[in-house]
Design goal:
The chain is 73% helix and 1% strand. With 547 residues, the chain is an all-alpha fold. Among the domains are: 123 residues, Serine Threonine Protein Phosphatase 5, Tetratricopeptide repeat; 114 residues, Tetratricopeptide repeat domain (Serine Threonine Protein Phosphatase 5, Tetratricopeptide repeat, Alpha Horseshoe). A two-stranded antiparallel sheet has the order 1-2. The longest helix is centred in the C-terminal third of the chain and has 17 residues.
Length: 547
Amino acid sequence: MKFKNRYLFLIVVIFAVINGCSSKTIKHQNIAKESQAVKVKKSNTKKNKLYSKVDRISPKAFHYFVNGTIYEEIGDFNSAATSYKQALQIYPNSYEIRFSMSDVYYQMQKFNDVLDILETIQPEDLFVLERRAHCYRSLGLDNQAKRAYLNVIALDSTDAMSYSYLASYYRRELKDDSLIWTYENLTKLRPNNYRLWGELGKLYIQNDSLERAKKALSESIRLSKDKSNLMTIIRLGELYEMEEKWDSALALYQIGYSIEEDNILVNRMLSNYYVQVDSIYKAIPYARKIVNVTPKDLNAIRRLGSIYFGSDSLNSADSIFTTLVEMGDHSPINYFYLGRIEMSNSNYHVALKHFKNLTLFADTSAESWLDLGFAYRKLNDPNNEIETYITGINHMPNEKSGVQLLFTLGATYEYYDRYDDAVKVFEEIIAKIPDHDQALNYLGYMLADRGERLDYAKELIEKALSFEPENIAYLDSYGWVFYKLGDNEKALKYLKKAVTLDNDPLIFDHLGDAYKANGDIESARTAWKKALNFAPDDSKIKEKLER
């Protein structure tokens, strides 16, 4: 019911009627003003005009109104509606009767009838606006409902319920800015509601307002550090991880862990955290707990196995992945790690078996064929290694994956001194992808190292450098091609720059050769000595120093 004093008002007037005072007037009920009974004359306006603020009510109209109220109270809405209609016929401009009638129709879910009644009610106050908004919402008239709730807020900016309804509309319509606006207002109206702050923080994250998100999430956590707010704690931890504020992230995950030790998500976040900060062994107890809580979750079991592998607990990792395969789980991940474990133990034949299975269950993955090819290399089987890459190329689902294997094939040809085949492969890559900077540099360096097509080699390397001007390998190649062209000044320029970026023995070796060609033997020996420090078994460098 709209009026708090409605029934008190009825009791007072009924008492007056019983005592013969039915001719007394009552004040037109206006929600913005207090109710009281007074005697006045009717205004002299036309019949169709509204009565003045204070008017006389007919005892008969009041009789029907009282009946309607009683029927409404006992749940007989049809009779209540009939009584209110009868009252309105006698007293058509009564705000109270019309609003009471809208109450009945609203409870009967006759929302269109409610809207019709509201159109005739004056003044159009906050209660009328709210009732109209609720009717539009119930009828599924979203646009009208939104406008109506905005009208309510314009009249009363503290109406939290209207903001809540608006939020539901904006969420469905994916209007993030408007949705954020509603939650910003809701947090002002309900500043101690941690759920509102948490939701606002989530919305800020979705809109990349990360600083605002941190403040909102922090406020939510300040208000509540219990199980119901666990997701907010984790969400803020993730934000700190994004900023590489590892200590802050860890502190939040530990709060989450203290709230609910067996929570899978908390344990997963702690496990992932320690993997990211290269303390993989610390991730083990959390990964193990996830498996204990969800023993049938194969992904969790594989995750534990991969963490064992990353922490060099190879026997534990092998036990997990072997058990999974024996259970009939043929996930490629199992064969990948089993193969890697055997490679680490130098059991190349066993690794080969696992990698063959890997290519059966993940034949469209370039990594599967690369692992199998590398196992053949360790077994000194160049023919099968090369054949593996060629076969893999034919299984690739897209050009990018195919080029990855094609690049490896070219490098493998060069490794086995099949120089012409290597050149053909890299030229094929460049024909497919002219901006493939790695292929440009690789081919350019190969040609330069052999002293072939040096101008062409220089062009290739220059193009590679245009994509990555600070790439150490490209700078070394560029310096080396200038050395081969006899331009020792430029050779020294680029080789000196390269050695300032990396302590690669090959670059120091090249620098020594350039110094020697330029007549600076002392600097050449210094460069070669540095190269030997990083590659003490390099016989060619030793030979240069012994001359």
